[in-house]
Model the fold of this input.
Amino acid sequence: MCTYKTFFQITTLAVAAICASLVGCESAAGPTCTEAKKPATVLGPYELDEEGFITNWLIVGPFPNPGERPDNQGFHVDYLKNYGGEAKHVSFNGMQIDKDDGTSVKWAPYEATYTSSVNFFEVDHLELGYEQDDILAYAACWLKCEKDMKVQIRVGSDDGYKLWLDHKIIGEEHVYRAAYRDQESYPVKLSEGMHILLIKVDQDYGSFEFMLRVVTPDGSKATGIKVYN
Done:
């Protein structure tokens, strides 16, 4: 349980994105101590689907992921470095991210309406070509818990990913694979209130997707959680 306060403030385009305040949140990766208050303009609340999958996200990209497996370089590049960095970044709808090549992309909402998987090739605002190679994208959302609870965050991905909860990395898999449900599971303790979730997914070639659900230790949908983006 955390006993100190951490404050983050991220500003882009003269917009103050966030103030962070104390919660108790412990994960397999160690204790975290940052519950970020969501920005004033958010979408939601949304429900987890019947199996606990999050289907409403903010998504931004694409970013380059050059190189040949197993050494695709983008997985280790912090493309949010000018916006707090991956570990402290707080997204909001319409937030612009300037890229090193002089172009820019914006965080925008996406809803997976027919499947629990987020297929990045179906995210219109990413404007990806069919099975485009050597890229990556980020997805983010907020979880609002009505009470303290123990849950598992279970992930499947194509290809690898990094996963942050409340600005602490709780999972990382630099792999090349097809996505299946529950390929990894991360037990965490969520306190009552808001929690920010960020995932970075990379693409070598072929399919490009991820799926993430929040469940009880026995694999049932976690109740008492709302999703915002």
Summary: The chain has one domain: 40-228. Residues 40-228 form a domain with the Jelly Rolls fold (CATH 2.60.120.380). The longest strand covers residues 135-145.
